[in-house]
Structure formats: C-alpha cells, structure tokens
Write a structure and sequence with these properties.
With about 300 residues, this protein is an all-alpha fold. Among the domains are: about 1-90, no CATH class; about 95-215, no CATH class. It has ten helices and three strands. The longest helix is centred in the last third of the chain and has 28 residues, at about 225-250.
C-alpha cells in the first residue's frame, strides 16, 4: 500500500517499539486504574489499525482492498471485515457541553460585544430582552445548545458566578475539569492525540518550514523539590499569560475568521508541565509474589 514505510532498520524498529512502550506505560496505568482490561484494549487497537490503514494513506493512493488492509496490519481478514462493517465504535464522539462551555468562555473574554470599556467581560443577564445576554452568547457559539445546561456546567466549574438572581459574571478564563467524569476523559484523549499528531507530522516532514511548533525546556541534571515548586509556580504564571495572549490574538480576528471561506482547520497550542518518574530497575519477577508450585499427586499404593 502506498504510504507504508517498510524500510525501517532492525535497530530503528527496536527503538520505535521501545518508544511505543514508554508512551503506553502511563496510558495503561490509567486503564488499569479504570478497570479496563487488556482484551478491551486489544479490540480498540485493532480497530485503530484498520481505520488508519484505510484513512491515513497518501491522497493520491488508490483505495486499498480489504486483503491489502489485512496484509498491511497483520490482522485476520475476517476481523478486518468486522471493523469495516461495524464502524460505529470508531466514529467521532459527539461534542459535549464542556466543549461549548469552553468556547463560551473564550467568546465572553474576547468578543467586543461582550466586553466592557476596560476590556473585561460584561456582567450578563441570563435572558435580557435587548442587548447582550448569556443566552445570546451561547447562541453565538452553538444555536442548538441549551443555555441553562451550559450555565450549570460553568457554575459547577466555578468559571462563572451569580452576582444576583439574574446576573452572571465570568471570574475565570480557564475551565479546570474534575479528575473524574466524561469531560476529563475526553480532554485526556484529545490532548494526547493532538500531541502525538504533531510529533507524527514533524517526523514525516522533511521541510523545516512545514513543521509545526514543538519546543521543550528541561533540566540537564534534575532539581530539588523546593526549586521544582518555585519553577512550577513561575511556569504556571507565565504559561497562563502566554495562552491568554494567544487567545486574545484569535479573539481580535474573530470577525475576520468568521468571514473566511473554504475549508476550516481547528488549531491550538497545548502547554503541560511534566515530572519524569524515577527509573525502576528492579526486575519484574522481584515485584510479584512467587508462584506456588503445584503439588504432584502420584496416587500411591495400598
């Protein structure tokens, strides 16, 4: 199949698989905590293999046959047929209220119609008869969304508060999702996919100008826990301001963006702070209880 690179050296294949194992460790840690078993993961992985072998090929490549998909992926032909003919589990998720809530916050903080003279978000009536209101703000983002449900989401996240019975005030520009629930899980999947898509794009691009922004700052020899706390606070402050600057840049061009014609691309910048776990060099067999040797029963005499 066109678009498949089978020329990796033995060393490159080994390095690639080792990198994949490093990527999978934290994901599988979360899966085990969530009670997701290996057989469930394999089902998802097979479906992703089939989908990628069909969708992620060169634009000018001919459509593959099912036999070609089976050969490329190493998946049995009957299983290839199953995933192609039962595509629903692989379909894109329907946007949930948290996505709309995030866009509402962005528009509230950047659209001139919802800003006061000083550039801060206006306090809004929920459903004012004239002028800007929370209902009209939500309708600008998604006319099909229920304004009451979006408000409940923003109140729950404490991004919005009530200043009286019918007036609402935006107090945070960011939405911090709780550790459990659909929003956090979807955020995890989306963020990780964006990051890996960027790496894959840059690895496949030979022209520097076509590569996407990818920068890292890290320590050479590690730091103490005290300095880590100070650096994390500094990075959080500067990172938040950097994201606000980018959000303002996009907001100032919202009218220009809204009037553009042709295909639309969703773009963004993600920032995260990482701490590498210590390398665990203890052999696996030393971390599990020894297996009990089965007692052999020979029967005997008498």
């Amino acid at each position: 199949m066109t678009g498949v690179d089978t020329n990796l050296s033995i060393d490159s294949r080994r390095d690639f698989l080792q990198a994949l194992r490093r990527i999978l460790r934290p994901i599988i840690r979360l899966m085990i905590r969530s009670g997701i078993r290996y057989d469930e993961f394999v089902d998802v992985a097979r479906g992703a293999y089939v989908e990628s072998a069909i969708r992620d090929v060169d634009n000018d490549a001919p459509r593959p046959t099912r036999d070609q998909v089976a050969w490329t992926t190493g998946i049995q032909r009957d299983l290839v047929d199953h995933y192609i003919d039962n595509e629903e589990p692989c379909s894109a998720a329907t946007p949930i209220a948290s996505h709309i809530a995030t866009e509402v916050l962005h528009k509230w903080h950047t659209d001139r119609r919802f800003l006061g003279p000083s550039g801060t978000p206006l306090e809004l009536d929920f459903n004012a008869a004239a002028g800007p209101s929370f209902e009209s703000l939500v309708a600008e983002v998604d006319s099909q969304s229920n304004s009451g449900l979006i408000l409940e989401e923003l109140l729950r996240l404490r991004s919005v508060v009530r200043s009286d019975d019918n007036h609402l005030r935006a107090v945070s520009r960011f939405s911090i999702w709780p550790n459990d629930g659909q929003q956090r899980i979807e955020c995890f999947g989306t963020t990780l996919a964006h990051m890996i898509e960027t790496f894959a794009h840059n690895l496949g691009s030979t022209i520097t100008e076509n590569k996407r922004l990818e920068r890292t700052v890290s320590t050479d020899r590690g730091i103490s826990s005290e300095i880590l706390t100070s650096f994390h606070a500094f990075a959080r402050e500067r990172g938040n301001q950097f994201l606000i600057d980018l959000d303002d840049w996009l907001g100032q061009r919202s009218y220009e963006i809204a009037n553009e014609v042709g295909p639309r691309l969703k773009i963004g910048i993600n920032i995260f702070f990482y701490v590498e776990p210590p390398v665990d060099r203890i052999p696996l067999d030393a971390l599990v209880l020894p297996s009990k040797t089965p007692t052999r029963f020979d029967g005997g005499h008498g």
